[in-house]
Amino acid sequence: MNQRSLFSGMNLAIFFTLGLIVFTQPAQAHCDTMNGPVVLTAMKALEKGDATSVLKWVKKEHEGEIRDLFKKTLAVRSKGPEAKDLADRYFLETLVRLHRAGEGAPYTGLSAEPVEPIVAAVDKSLENGSADHLIKHVSEEVASGIRKRFTLALEKKKHSDESIDAGREFVEAYVEFTHYVERLYDEAKGGSAEHGKVEAHHKH
């Protein structure tokens, strides 16, 4: 075996080993799922052999890295089914990790978990070109959440002066009710932080 072949073989081994290390991590976020838009876009791009469509998912400073890895992935894919699976997976891991980094959000690996229904509804609305069903669904959930907390706070208020414990129960319900409405209002006004930061906050 000549030095060039040996070097290529070592690179391939390192490539696969790094991929296996990354694969073992759990995942939780929408963009970290195998059914999420980042992965689905990437798989189509790999089949077409054109990285253009995946570059929108990473910041400009990561574009060169993704382009380079995409080319390497295409080369490795031709070496057989197992090599293809490993190369694809490593590319997906890297792409999603850099996408998350661009959002300022943590990344812990890819997940096979299905996308949450509300997130799937968001994607569906963009496919259908209409937000009507999504608005109705979200509005119903918001209204239900407000009514539930309002009813509890109102009931607790009726008995809040009967004892200190009853008063504290009212305060607890009042605070939850107020903060819930306040969060909804702030989000509706568009005062939320960037997607990744909000997502990371909800995780914790």
Describe this protein's structure:
This protein is mainly alpha-helical and 204 residues long. The chain has two domains: 101 residues, no CATH class; 87 residues, no CATH class. It is built from eight helices and no strands. It is elongated and about 75 Å long. The N terminus and C terminus are likely disordered.
In a few lines, what is going on in this structure?
By secondary structure, the chain is mostly helical. Helix content is 71%, strand content 0%. The protein has two domains: 3-103, no CATH class; 117-203, no CATH class.
In whole angstroms, how far apart are the ends? Answer: 53 Å
* Beta-strand residue fraction: under 5%
Helix content: over 70%
Q: How large is the count of helical segments?
A: 8
Low-confidence stretches: 1-28, 196-204
- Strand element count: 0
The profile of the biggest β sheet is: none
Radius of gyration: 24 Å
Order of secondary-structure elements: HHHHHHHH
Integer tally of domains: 2
In one word, what is the shape?
Answer: elongated
Decide which structural class fits the backbone: mainly alpha
